Amino acid sequence: MYNHPPEDGIKQNLNMRKIHINNDDNYATPPDFYKKLDERFNFDFDPCPYCEGEVVDGLSIEWGERNFVNPPYSRKLKEAFVRKGIEEMKKGKLCVFLLPVSTSTELFHDWIKPNATEIEFIRGRIKFGKLDKDGNFYLPLNKHGKTQSGTKDSMVVVFDGRTPPCK
How far apart are CA 26 and CA 50, in angstroms? Predict the structure, then answer.
């Protein structure tokens, strides 16, 4: 999953598109959810922005000072982004992740829990979407012609290099 729509394309369009939801890694964070986090953390960089086509390699570039990260949810990429976020935190940077809840994994116990300064479990499931060619957010339809919530619970994990980790 990739994160929020570009700032200039946050117009929310709730017209449903007849696109079957699949298991690709390219979904957008709902603009309202992103906006609430941005109001709190004032993000200046997004290492894995939503895109259809050209992919940004957020693992090989220097991140900003205050980062919003909704990484691809495939296991290897998700783990790589979390590790990179911890590296950036150790440089004194803020990295706010939107991740699926997987508390029984090595990633959670060996990387997230010991390094996070905050973990917030989101009530309910987030409805991730897509962006049309004009940057409008929409919810794709499943094979039954209905929108659906995400298939996993979500958590916001904060790695703040300015604050000691929670224990």
Answer: 7
Range in 2-6, 24-28, 61-65 with the lowest mean pLDDT: 2-6
DSSP string, 103-162: TTSHIIIIIIHHH-SEEEEPSS----BEE-TTS-EEPEE-TTS-----SS-EEEEEEETT
For residues 96 and 81, what is the distance between their CA atoms, to the nearest angstrom? 11
- Backbone φ, ψ for residue 138 (5° rounding): -145, 160
CB atoms within 10 A of CB 20: 10
Residues 131 and 154: beta-carbon distance below 8 Å: no
The two structure tokens encoding residue 1: 């999953």
Euclidean distance between CA atoms 19 and 2, whole angstroms: 18
pLDDT at 54: 67
pLDDT tens digits for range 31-45: 999 999 999 999 999
